[in-house]
Protein 1
Amino acid sequence: MESMAVLDSVGVGDLVLLEPLTEDTLMQNLKKRFEHQEIYTYIGNVVISLNPYQPLPIYSAKTVEEYKNCNFFAVKPHIYAIADDAYHSLKNQDKDQCILITGESGAGKTEASKLVMSYVAAVCGKGEEVNRVKEQLLQSNPVLEAFGNAKTIRNDNSSRFGKYMDIEFDFKGDPLGGVINNYLLEKSRVVHHVRGERNFHIFYQLLSGGSDQLLKQLKLERKFSLYNYLNKEPASLQGIDDAGNFKAVQDAMRGIGFTPSEMTEVLEVAAVVLKLGNLQFGEQFQAGGTQACVIQSDKVVQEICQLIHLDETVLEQALSSRTVEAHQDKVVTSLNVSQGYYVRDALAKNIYNRLFNWLINRINESIKVSIYTIGYKFSLLTLIFDICLVSSSQDNSFEQFIINYCNEKLQQIFILLTLKEEQEEYIREGITWTHVDYFDNSIICNLIEDNKSGILAMLDEECLRPGEVNEETFLNKLNQVFLKHQRYESRVTQNAKHIMDTSLPINCFRIQHYAGKVTYNVTGFIEKNNDLLFRGLSQAMWKAKHALLRSLFPEGDPPKASLKRPPTAGSQFKASVFTLMQNLYSKNPNYIRCIKPNDNKRPAVFTDGLVRAQVRYLGLLENVQVRRAGYAFRQAYEPCLERYKILCKETWPHWKGSGRDGVRSVLSSLSTDPKELAYGHTKIFIRSPSTLFDLERRRQQRVQELAALIQAAFRAWKCRKNYQEMRRSQILISAWFRGQRVRSKQTQSCICLAAFDKRILLILVERVQRRATKMIRGLGTKTYKEQLLELGMSIPVVVFKFFLLPVLWTWLGGCGRGRIL
């Protein structure tokens, strides 16, 4: 941790520092933060995310800039922090990264994955090719959501498949491309979903947003109730614009690079799936008296065959009979009505599942990286975890069983990688590793996956063995093998232990998962594990003159046909999980644990029981205990010294030594228990949160003391400054007043003098004027010489009279207006 932002927020931002640590205090901390719209909390570098069910102003461009190149703990807990940390670890340390997003349906996994992708797209480089790759990666979301998401009771946009995305970057941190892998699409939803839920989004989007011309071309009508695979009840959702989303899906497909013909073919295949659900079967008796099914929906068959350009007879025969080949012989067996419906639904599920896989492969073709490019991988994994922890539940079937198996494996690798990461850091820092006691769920994983005596292995054995096979024989075998297993129980094992528990039905078994007990109903296990599609159906689809549909069933080509039995669904999933675990173990993992705060999708509502159950099955308390088993807190010396140097006179305000010596001086001056401390090569390790909180308490106290000193110094400086300003103002005012008084006296004197001078001058002027007039009049009686002589002697008088006198009168007039000499 590079900062104490996790302590400066509401509650405790990092549960590793929670004191005391119990399930109740953990719950109280999460609730307190949620009530203040603090939806993110850390467990070390794990992010816990509570779905707010409302838009929050914490994902703006400004927020992206705040978390860009941030120190993970230097800012408030946020999903952007883990995305930035993973991205820059990949870019700067050349380490492949993985972000694992887990949580139950409605917890916000899909939105979390989109936020991570959008953040990475925002902070990586710019450029035409880079922008093209980023746009295609982002545009994959609307397409996959339309074909892979559905409305469930818990979530209006629930991902019904697991998604693993690898994004590859070059040495500059720019995306080069990527690849998407999917796990376990819930294809059974195509043919059945409970009341209150919907089929996959694309069907409703197509019927709502498709143009009249398009629907006519696909031979569809807008009414949802006309299709058996869609609920008869109103399927529109408040706040969801199916028509608008259909346009967004089309735009996204064009952005990825789908051609118009490819887009049309995809919708034609989706229309075929819808129409298969409207096929009805009836009974007829054959010549031998045996019952056989016959298709009663001729118009539906005709429309399907027109869409895929297939002969109607071929489709009818494939749906109503089964052809078995043995050596060179072919045996055609008619199906009864129930078998006919089973085959119809199996074909619909297989077509949709293969279409979904084709879409992912087509997207991968657009976003793939050149084989000549070497880069670093950033992986984003989003998986479905709808774990039911109510032991009395009888609804958990094969799909839930293998999902919970995957969850056990992820919990196992999470603990192992967490311990491995902790141990590696201790070794790097030269700190003695402390053994950590934790629950090892290997016993549960082996119960399920053991190659010889695991549940999946015995299920495959039952599916493959000759003779009568049903769920009862499968359950009996489980009871024999696991009679004394501490994590397995059924009616038989309970009776053997003299336990009476009527909550466990006779056709169920129960596993004590690390998160709690889960009951599974074995009905349908064998059928779903076989996941067989009759060879005649594959051959019929391959005979269609529809390019896309034909490509989905390559095994229908007779030369490529194989008599070898395809692998079971369980064995395929087990292999996928094994590959996934290897992939995760080779990368630096980052975790986002999503939690649903309430079942009603309401903002600001925190249901304690629901959240507590998720905290348990996500193993959050155990995660915290592992993180703080040795030293709960560690921090590089320099930032630690920067934060706490105010507590020691030797280090405050400036320290000239090394960071390690400075931290040692600070902690020694505080008499901190040496047993609580360990000095690594680059970091200080503190064992318990109470020691850290004591440091924080002392720091806050010292900050308050320094704040008081600063405030006192500031107030004194401000008072001095105000006094000096007032003193300068007083001097200026006094000087101005004295000057004004002197100037006023001088002005009065000048005014009096001017009035006196005016009277004297008037008298003189009158005298000069009379003398000059008299002189001029006397010139007329004298000779010219005398005149000149007289005039020459009187030049000053003449000049004064004719030149200076007008100026003098003007001046005197000015004096009369109060002008001062």
Note: The CA atoms of residues 308 and 500 lie 57 Å apart.
Protein 2
Amino acid sequence: MASISWYILLLLLSGQFYTTSGTNGVHDNTDCCHWEGVGCDTATGHVTSLNLTRLGLYSHGIDQALFNLTSVQLLDLSMNDFGGSQLPAVGFVRLSSLTNLNPHNSQLLNLSSSGFSGQIPISIGKLTNLVSLDLSNQYVYDNNGISTNRLLLWEPSFKTLVRNFSKMRELYLNGVNISSSGKEWCTALGKYIPCIRVLSLENCGLYGSIHPSFSSLCSLEVINLRRNTISGAFPQYFADFLNLSVLMLLELDLNGQFPQKILELKHLTTLELSGNANLMVPVHSLPKGSSLETLALDGTNLSIAKPSSFGNLRFLHALHLDARIISKELSSSLSTLDSLEELLVLLNESFLSWIGNLKNLVLLTLEYGDFSRTSKSWIGKLANLEALVILNSIFSGWIPPEIGNFKNLRILSLHNCSLSGKIPAWIADLKHLSYVNLSTNNLSASPLCRGSTYTIIFSSGALKIAVLDLSENQLSGHIARSFWQLQTLNTLDLSSNNFSGLLELNTLLRLRKLSALSLSDNKLAFLDVEVNNTLLPVLSKLNQLYLSSCLFSLKHIQMLDLSSNQIQGTVPEWFWKTWSHSLTYMNLSHNNFSSLELSSHFLPNKQKIPVPGHPINRQLPDYSNNIFSSIPENFSYLTQTVYLSFARNKLSGQLPDTICKARMLEVLDLSYNNFSGQIPPCLIEDVHLGILNLRDNSFEGKLSFVIKDQCTLQTIDLNGNKIEGTMPELLSNCSELELSSLHVLVLRSNHWSHIFTSLQIIDLASNNLSGVLCPKWFDGLTVMMTKHDTDKVVRGEHLSRGSYQNIVLITYKGMYMAFEKICTTLTVIDFSDNCFRGRIPDTIGKLVSLHVLNLAHNGFDGKIPNQIGGMTDLESLDLSSNQHSGEIPQELTNLTFLGTLNLSSNQLVGRIPESHQFGTFQSTSFEGNEGLCGAPLPKQCKSSEAPSEPNESKPSKQIDFILYLFSGAGFGIGFAAAVLTKW
């Protein structure tokens, strides 16, 4: 029985999860070791496993309480829904039983298909004794068929994640955006996980050829590299992987010749090569006793020398082939395969009668066929068929009636098959149907209209259809109310037809499981009838709604969000004529709008930027991420606007002073444009702005020094402009810019002569700062002196109607990267590209939680402080292009999480350290130091070679005044540039 402490912990943890029934399934009065998915040690009562896979749980993220389960050796949260939350930056290392190797159990972490997003944290890489890791992600496809990966593995990189996984035997990262070249990921696997048995990296953004270092992974049993942009010659050494059972290389760009020996591997059960058009696959003969269960060779340059040998595949369940190679001899062999359940054939002719002999076929997929002149009677022989998919083919007339014989049919897809006529009534007899796709045909009549016999087809209570797609047909008439009785519907697409009439929106409330609805491009009008608020949550699963042609009939819109689409052209004038008296929130961001259709009644001079207005509304227009090219000179129409964003457009010229007539404005975001001239003084002097974001423009001159006592500024971002001079001292009147709540200082690429301190991220790169660094200054950076064991995110700036989340762009591991959520664990100092000189103070070693230190391109000299070796959280260290001398401190080898090191272009001497991380760095990290020797440099060290003593410089007294300015400023500037709308 579990102890009371484990009981309380699991009880707290269970409260973070919800099921579709609204309960968490916990029985408070029972032993927690008997709860579903919980396993305990019988001797100690400690919880040793937590397996919650496929329980239909929902949560807003992983709670820190989970990491108190320190005895857990198996943690499986897969196939649940964590709502797109990010994985915690820290906490995983506290799962000590996943870190300490137990010879009797396999350490396993499975977070796959659970809706996580964002960067995979480095803390998972610290679980050094993991045997199995599955972070596979369900990537989604947009309207253009392009997949989007939610999880990222950039910083840390793939190499950084796996470098401590020497015990790993199974690695699944399907759908994780790794974006790595073949040399990088192959070399990392060969070096750090040489005994891996299962490798699954499907759709990970891998590119380039498979590096020869992959040949060292001779223990591999499963290789899944499907749907990457891998190219180059097929690796012949795959035939030497004697334990190989699964080889999936679908939709790559491999060339050369596939080795016949792979087909002779006795353990091979799955071979997928589909979509490698330049790969020659000569099948001389298939061995008797072959274990093959899945064989996919369609879309390759396949040749078959002995078709009869296909009869040896007695265990074959799935076969994908091109019809061009199916001869009568081959079809005769295939028709004897009694075990065949899945068949995909890409057609260019109609020799298909042999398929009727496959009595056990469950799934049949045919593409690019012409059925208009041939008999389709063979279809009716497939009595056990559960899925029929015929795509991009040609039929003549109605849907083949033979399909009505498939009483077990679950999936019916006849997309783009030139079908015409009515939808047949016999579909209502297919009681197991869950997926129906009849899109892109010429089906007519009115299968859904009121009074039609076809209403019975889709409103039958016996049908359990989850997905119904009838888009792009000629269906017409009214949509009957009885149609909405299909309460199992998850996806419904009726777009691009001729439906008309009035549709009451409350009828949608019956579709409790609906997650995607498209009624676009019809002639529908909508009636919004007041409904009981208790019914509204039933549409909580709806995440895709397409009603593009239906907006015109909605007369009282208050909030309109059309963001993140590909809408282009002109914003129509009827937007403003119809909604000018009701609209309070409008988001047209992330589109391709270029102009606005407006009469002088709504905006003088027909300007190109839409500025709707009405004195009774507090408006929140977002026009960011479009291609608008000019800005209105008269902003008097913005008198009730509290939030205004023109970010990331093509705006230029001077910003008119009339912007200050927007007296209610709390957020102004004009970032990433090409504005020039001086910033209007009124923006700082006398408006009620909370956030002013002018990042990456060409503003110049000095800031206003007249700031009122009631300054409300919380955030200013002037990054990437040409502002000069000192910061106004009266910024201290801005009480919301208190130092205690300031986490980020970004003054990059300006010409500031004053500096500020005590921050979590300090970016003073590319200024004209000079002098030497005082040792006492680092003593004040207390935030960077404490190890943080929390993934708390720095708060956004809160306004009266919403919030604005910080984002900062910094140089991180040699790349210019954006951090949308700044965790308290991320600490950065970037003084690069300035004129600092003298020695780096030893006190910098006190900053033990610092992650990034960049002092490159300055005039620092003397020895590199040994104390840097104690900053064990460092992931990136750049001291390049200075005048450092002496040897590289051996203590730097203690930086085991260092992913990027650059000591190039200095005056360093002696042997390069070889242990720990130093063995992973390239020669570019050390080039430009004539006195250095040893790997990875080509210069060999002499056994008697001794390093020369560095010439130390004395610090200048000038710094006392400059550093007084460092520590004497009682205010600062935080920077934020991306909107987190909570209006």
Note: The two ends are 49 Å apart (CA to CA).
Protein 3
Amino acid sequence: MAMGGVGLYIYFRYAYSQPSLGWKRNGEDYELLAPRMLCIALLAPYFLWMIGRSLADLPWPQRILSALMRIAFVAVLAVGLSRFARTATESRVCTVYMVDVSESVPDEAIEDARLEIDKALKEKPKDAIVRVITFAKRPRVVELAEDAKDAPKLERHDLLPGADEKKGKRTGLGAASDLQSALQLSYGQYPSGYLRRAVLFSDGVQTDGDVLAEANRANKFGVKLFTVAYHRPVPGEVAVRDLRVPDKVRIGEPFALHAQVFSSRAQKVRFTLKQGEAINGLDGVREVDLKAGDNDVPFKSVVRVAGEVTYALDMEGAKEDRFKENNRYSVSVAVPGRPTVLYVEGNPARASYLSSALSAQEFDVDVRGPRELPTSIRELERFDFTILSDAPAEAVSLTQQDALEQYVRDLGGGFLFAGGESGYGLGGWNHTTIERILPVRMDAEKRRDEPQVAMSLVIDRSGSMTGLPLEMAKAAAKATADTLSAEDLLEVIAFDSQPNRVVRMTAAKHRARIQNDIARIQPGGGTEIFSALDASYQSLTTTRAKRKHVILLTDGQAPTNGIRDLVQAMAAEGITVSAVGLGAGVDEGLLRMVAELGGGRFYKVLDPQSLPRVFTRETEMVSRNAAVEEYFQPKIVGNADFMRGVDLASAPFLHGYVATRMKPAPAQELLQSEVGEPILARWRVGLGWSLAWTSDVKNLWAVEWLRWPGYGQFWGQLVREHMRQKRRQELTMRAELDPATGHVRTYIDAIGGDDKFQNGLDAKLTVRGPEPSGESKAIPMRQTAPGRYESDFPLERYGSFLLHGILEKPVEDGKGGTKSVQVAESFGHVQNPYPREYLAFEPDRRTLEQAAKLTGGAADPSVKTIFDAAGETVKYHQDLWPRFVLAAVIIYVLDLYLRRVRLFDRKKTAAPKVIPARRPA
């Protein structure tokens, strides 16, 4: 009881009333942060009192030992729960090395940094710690053992860790430098009880973040920063920094563009300037002697057509050029003027009729052939309306067709597809992108008075056709079967040194069987054309059909004996022959002779994938399923504003058209033939209009229209109504790129014709990326002030971006609901040519030195300086209570053992006595 009383007095006198208890020993501070928990130790006298009163049948020594164990348990537990801690002072150093591995840093400089780290690991004090971080756009911690003596490998971030440099997938993370993020990551690498040091190896070039601002924070966190600028000679570099265009460019007036070019050495380079997709007419190609430093390189140019014009400058030929990515720069300029029309004519020599008529109607017309049709929406964007007339599908690539679709759907451009001998089905346009966006279908129904066709396909299957050529030839044969009408006849002869009739003359309605037979064609040996043509001749002469035609396909040379006489005999029997030469090694003279004598056509095809389109076009032209050559006057069957004021009743006859069928609503038929087939139709495709004119626009079927006074008015009003809608209010867009963040902010000020702000509009921005993918992304715009609409978005790629803003307002639809009506639009561009990392020409030593001074560090330190505590100490708090809690658990387990096992008076057990067994008597 006396001990308990003394304990209570001491507890209430020193512990209960104190928030903490502290004392010093050997220069270190010890502290109990929760001294009231020492009350648990007051249980110790109770365990002494219970020694003689325990009911356990244990020896006295074991009872005493167990009581002492319990006393030790509560004492140790009391200290642990009182949160026993120590505050120590240390002068140990932990250094974090941060190495810049971005693309602006040469490999030799990174190796120098690795050697410095290796030196530090060998010379540092034993109690010092080293950590390593590499960084570019993002920082990474490099694994390093505590006892490491050699520096780790420092990998660039443009590849995934451990990836093969040649085969690995590029991440793009090396094209930036964020020194601030590396310093921020270093804070988490320091253990407690160590002085904090950081060493930054870099060229000082920042594309993201602010290392000076972070250095101020690092100083508050007790981090002393040392910096080491790379001392290796800077590799030679030449870069296009800017391409400047005058604010105002007028049609037909020459002007100068100025390229701002940096070169680290004097050298000679070659520049190529493109206007759109064509080389600039005045100064397209120039060789220039650059001086060391900044250079101003002027280029002369002139714009002939109004609209958005994109200039792209490419530089090549530099002997010392580290980054190829900064050798290209593009910029767009808006050229005001009359509405612009792109007129793509399959026969450019006959384009003057329509182009002259449109020019007289105040349009700027750019006439081109099919091969010159732009392949990018960026080049098409300068035109308000596009006409594609009488061109075969094989002359227009899939890329060009996709660009046209995007031009109509996303930019709101107008598009007219005009017929002719190569238009619609006659030109092989079935199942193409163009057919998809037109309001008519090209699979016109066969008219009763059309002739029945017997078609013979003679296909080369020699060894040289193995692979893709033969597979595409089979695809072309299948496409022919699909194009023919059900009652038409078809046979397929595959030949090498001998002909093989794969498909006997049969009705095209058996398409499944025909295609299965075609699929079984296999490559063979030589090439013998005569016997194959003769087999075709023999079958066609015994076939009853109004029109008989042969398509010959070969990719090589063959004996010519007898072919001329055979083709002449076929022509005398009314059998026509067309020839298709595949590849550059064909006997072009022989095939041209076959086509001329046979009354057909010759096609030279270099790409095997074009074969299905060639066969489809040829089949359409032979069967003439689509061509209707007869005089008629188009009938008005639909209403359209552009036809007002045009006296179509006085219009002369058209001499023909290509038969098509209307697609379902919302396709609208405006003019039709006397038998009810569409002549002019239209429908909406996205933001724009797509129109189908199934006759032609020149001196074939529209020869009488050319002399009609209403010809120019008709086409002028049609184009004006369906071109990109300049009738809507077009607002000015301002776009600003923040190079530090890669974000673009756009501003549109919506002010109506009455000079009042237009508020409450639904605004959205479409951002179309650089070619060739040209992917688009929709960005919502928010109203931030009266009449002002803004958006903020990151650019994740590099190049020239097209911006299109649309502003709509809700109106009543007359049915009790609302609908959105577009009231204004806006166009803009923003250039993000390449990462700023590629503009790093010299190390920024000044920034590195300033960052070091802000933290009390220095530039270019020695290993001794980095790890020298210099009299600095760091106090750190160490919790000791977990050790006492663990000790209490161990003591408790030992106490349980003492209470369960007798230790001091175990009786010896006698060995059992063995009684020998008796032997039987």
Note: The chain is about 25% helix and 30% strand.
